[in-house]
Each structure stands twice: as structure tokens, then as C-alpha cells.
Amino acid sequence: MREGLDVYQCAWRAKHLEYMMRWHVSHNYAYNEVVIDTSNWMECLPDIIEAVFMIAGQDEAPARRIYAAFKRAYPQSKTMLLRLNTANAPGDVFLEVEEDAIQPW
């Protein structure tokens, strides 16, 4: 085994998601990625998408374009546009962008 591979504990089953998240938090990692089987997502749209987020201080245009396209496709969706600002940690790192501040791209 290559050095470092055992650090990440990266193969978790779906039924262990909560345990994986708790493990991740207890080991104080800054990065986490979860791959999810999306085979039944289409039938659950739009409610399965809770938010589109952009990172504060970076180019917001891609997230705004995605959000605008999603809202055009699902105008009644309650999906939010959020800005992630890790400088606010440990407080509110996700802040909702108001609808009137969203520009159509």
C-alpha cells in the first residue's frame, strides 16, 4: 500500500454515511467528497436539489448560470442560491443570496 492511502478511510457504504461524517469531523479534515448514486434523482427533481452554492471571493458566474437555468426549468422550486464564506466559521458559513440580487445570465 502506498504511503498515505490509509489516512483517508475513503470507502464507506451508504448505510454508514452518518458514521463517516462524524469520523470526518472528529479528524478535523478540511475537505470531504461524497459520491452518490444518482439513478433515481430525475424522478425526485426539483425537490432533491436544496441549494446551488458559490464560494465567496471567487467567480460567481458559473453558479449563477446554473441556478438561473435550474429556476427556469423548475420555477416553483424552493432551491436556494447560497454563498459559502468559510471566514465566518464556526458561525454561518452559508448565506442565502436574495432573489432580487440574482442576475439572469
Describe what you observe in this structure.
The N and C termini lie far apart (48 Å). This protein has three helices and three strands. It is flat. Mean pLDDT is 81; it is low at 1-7. The longest helix has 13 residues, at 61-73. It has two domains: 1-36, no CATH class; 39-105, no CATH class. Strands 1-2-3 form a three-stranded mixed beta sheet, covered by helices on one side. The protein is an alpha+beta fold and 105 residues long. Helices cover 26% and strands 12% of the residues.
List keywords for this structure.
single chain; 105 residues; alpha+beta; 2 domains; 3-stranded mixed sheet; 3 helices; flat; disordered N terminus
How are the SSEs placed, and which strands pair?
Layout: H1 17-26, H2 41-44, E1 51-55, H3 61-73, E2 80-84, E3 94-96
Number of domains: 2
What class, by secondary structure content?
Answer: alpha+beta
Let me know the number of strands: 3
* Major β-sheet profile: 3 strands, mixed
Order of helices and strands: HHEHEE
Mean pLDDT: 81
Low-confidence stretches: 1-7
Q: Biggest sheet, strands in spatial order?
A: 1-2-3
How does the overall form come out from the CA principal axes? flat
Residue share in helix: 25-40%
Number of helices: 3
How far apart are the termini?
Answer: 48 Å
Radius of gyration: 17 Å
Percentage of β-strand residues: 5-15%
